[in-house]
Design a protein that fits this description.
Layout (H helix, E strand, L loop, with lengths): L4 H10 L3 H5 L11 E4 L28 H6 L1 H7 L3 E4 L3 E3 L15 E7 L6 H13 L3 E6 L10 H4 L7 H5 L4 H4 L13 H16 L4 E4 L7 H14 L2 E4 L6 H10 L3 E2 L2 H12 L5 H7 L12 E3 L15 H15 L5 E5 L26 H19 L1 H5 L1 E5 L9 E8 L2 E8 L5 E6 H4 L6 E5 L8 E5 L2 E6 L3 E6 L2
Parallel strand pairs: 1-2, 1-10, 2-5, 5-6, 6-7, 7-8, 9-10
Antiparallel strand pairs: 3-4, 11-12, 12-13, 13-18, 14-17, 15-16, 16-17
Length: 484
């Protein structure tokens, strides 16, 4: 369901600050491509900070760090990403909980220090300088809901946290009760409010361009209003995580002040249609709601991330998983919004639920030829998107297709400044040629000789003649064509 009592209450509390927010210029990531990394699972650049590392244990520290991430910036740049999102790098609780180390960064103990496993604040600054020097923006994950289970603040500052009694008496359990048992911050406490607001200022001073805010569903609305006000004033782009958000939820939060949220409903539809081989109708149903979004070009689009099973895991067969991940990545690059690629998806890495979806990243020297093929297809799709103003930032319009074809064929245009790109997703099991009347599509394009896809290395073609659009499409793939 779109509307929850919780969401309505939070948005009502946020509305009080909307006037101040709309008077300020809006930060934008439209046209960007974000690459998501979990530093511990990316690359080990400094073995000296490997205390407690055990790569054989998927719940232990694995040794990845900021030095390694900085060393691998040329890899991210070669892929074509224009921004890097890091999961939290704060100093974490020093002990394990439930047999798991805080390698992921979501069990903080000190919000303004870098965990020694990742390096130092100077290492973080070196990473920021390196990324921005290479023309990439930096997105930092921010935890605003809780401390780690064993953080010292839990005992030293008990008034900062919601108690079980407060939870029991709360009308809003999602906000006032612990998430997964984590010590739940009471953002209405003035000290907590200032702590968290100042944390954002601190990381901005380190050069961060944008924040991804974790678990906003569980955070008090008035505090979020104040936080977003300050971010807007500072020109910081904001990306919120509301797990399972659909178009309506994303639209409501954009109206409330967030620049972006993750569109989970599209991720689910692509998992079923692109990976699962079901009808493309599920994707169409999500895209049909684009008009509800105040800022559709800012919405975060993804195939998978660190919280869900790998996209390639959706097939029992590795070759199918790779082929359909390539299809999904090409499809992602045709959509309006901000694509987010989780480390390893560009080579169709596999993995089930957490922690299996967080396997160590592998690089060129250990890839199979098939993984290299997926990487090159991803790189080409990103390059085509960046080279085309229409694909990067253009308006998106769905085209009607005959009912008999709609399960296997999805068509839409991307248009900007007189340039039109046709996106064609094909879910059919075999290569097929389609001839569709231009009038039935609602377009009036001029004659066009056979034209290849904008995605290098893809055998797909389009032509226009005699009032018809002709498409030659490979099985289970997505293509993009310049038609005007």
């Amino acid at each position: 369901m779109r509307h929850f009592a919780l969401l309505g209450a939070l948005l009502t509390s946020l509305a009080g600050g909307s006037g101040a927010q709309t008077a300020l210029p809006l930060s934008s990531f439209e046209g960007q491509v974000i690459y998501q990394v979990m530093p511990d699972r990316f690359f080990d650049g400094n073995p000296a900070n490997n205390a407690g590392v055990n790569r054989a244990d998927p719940r232990a520290w694995h040794g990845g760090d900021l030095a390694g991430l900085t060393q691998k910036l040329p890899y991210i740049q070669r892929l074509g990403a224009t921004a890097v999102w890091l999961t939290p790098v704060y100093a974490q609780q020093t002990v394990n909980s439930f047999g798991t180390a805080p390698y992921h960064g979501y069990w903080p103990a000190d919000f303004r220090a870098v965990d020694p496993h990742f390096g130092t604040l100077a290492d973080f600054r070196a990473f920021v300088d390196g990324a921005q020097g290479a023309g990439m923006r930096v997105v930092l994950d921010q935890v605003i809901n809780h401390y780690g289970y064993e953080a010292a603040a839990v005992k030293l500052r008990p008034a900062w946290f919601n108690t079980q009694a407060q939870c029991d008496g709360a009308a809003n359990k999602d906000v006032d009760c612990a998430l997964a048992g984590l010590p739940d911050l009471r953002q209405s406490n003035p000290q907590v409010r200032e702590l968290l607001l100042d944390n954002a200022d601190f990381w901005r001073e380190q050069g961060v361009n944008a924040f991804r805010y974790d678990a906003i569903k569980h955070v008090e609305g008035p505090f979020l209003r104040d936080l977003l006000d300050r971010d807007r004033q500072a020109g910081t782009w904001t990306l919120g995580e509301w797990f399972d958000a659909d178009t309506g939820t994303v639209a409501d939060w954009q109206k409330a002040g967030f620049d972006s949220l993750f569109l989970f409903s599209l991720q689910d539809a692509m998992k079923r249609s692109v990976m699962g081989g079901q009808s493309l109708g599920a994707v169409r149903a999500v895209l049909e709601r684009q008009g509800e979004l105040p800022r559709p070009g800012e919405v975060a689009l993804f195939l998978d991330n660190h919280d869900v099973p790998r996209f390639a895991q959706g097939s029992l067969f590795e070759d199918e998983g790779r082929a359909r991940t390539r299809y999904g990545l090409r499809a992602l690059m045709t959509l309006r919004g901000v694509p987010v690629v989780w480390q390893g998806t560009e080579i169709a890495m596999r993995g089930g639920p957490d922690p299996d979806n967080r396997r160590d990243m592998r690089f060129e020297d250990s890839w199979t030829p098939e993984e290299r093929e997926v990487f090159e297809a991803t790189r080409a799709a990103i390059a085509a998107r960046k080279a085309s103003p229409a694909l990067s930032r253009g308006a998106q319009t769905l085209l009607p297709t005959p009912d008999r074809l709609s399960g296997d064929l999805l068509l839409f245009t991307r248009q900007l400044n007189g340039q039109t790109v046709l996106a064609a997703w094909h879910g059919g099991r075999e290569r097929r040629t389609y001839s569709l009347k231009l009038a039935s599509l609602g377009v009036n394009w001029k004659a066009l000789a056979a034209t290849p896809s904008l995605f290098a290395g893809q055998d797909a073609r389009v032509s226009v003649s005699g009032g018809y659009l002709h498409l030659s499409l490979p099985a289970r793939d997505a293509a993009a064509f310049r038609v005007e």
